[in-house]
Amino acid sequence: MIPCEFERNGEVVRVDPTGPLIVTAGVPDMVISAATAGLGIVSLFEEWLQPSFDSGELVPVLKSWWPSFSGPFLYYPSRRFMPAPLRAFVDFIKR
């Protein structure tokens, strides 16, 4: 099992999770459902968890250790000769 890493101000803490259910990747809805059912804690993008926070189904923990995320980055070779599907994707992401 890959340990969970938390970093704050240069301090790194590693936690080796144990338990009956450990999900390292998968469908966010499934992971959120497991957490709201009381099976453990979840680490996902805050935006995905906000509805569960707002409803009171989940409570934020370790908030001072949450990583910041400035958003996705997309690198591509040229704006000048961009294929139409890539142009549509870039426009969608910008919105």
Question: Could you provide a short overview of the structure?
Answer:
By secondary structure, the chain is an alpha+beta fold. The chain is 32% helix and 11% strand. It has helices spanning 28-36, 46-55, 84-94, and strands at residues 4-8, 11-15.
Spatial extent as radius of gyration:
18 Å
**Helical segment count:** 3
Widest β-sheet, arrangement of strands:
1-2
**Average pLDDT:** 84
Number of strands: 2
In terms of DSSP E residues, the strand content is 5-15%
| Coarse structural class | alpha+beta
How far apart, in Å, are the first and last alpha carbons?
Answer: 37 Å
Helix content: 25-40%
Shape: extended
Write the H/E string, N to C.
Answer: EEHHH
- Stretches where pLDDT is under 50 for at least 5 consecutive residues are none
Can you summarize the main beta sheet? Answer: 2 strands, antiparallel
Observed structural traits:
95 residues; alpha+beta; 3 helices; extended
Written description of the protein model:
- This protein is of the alpha+beta class and about 100 residues long.
- The protein has a domain of about 60 residues.
- The protein has a two-stranded antiparallel sheet.
- A hairpin with a 2-residue loop joins strand 1 and strand 2.
- About 0% of the residues are buried.
- The model has no long low-confidence stretch (mean pLDDT about 85).
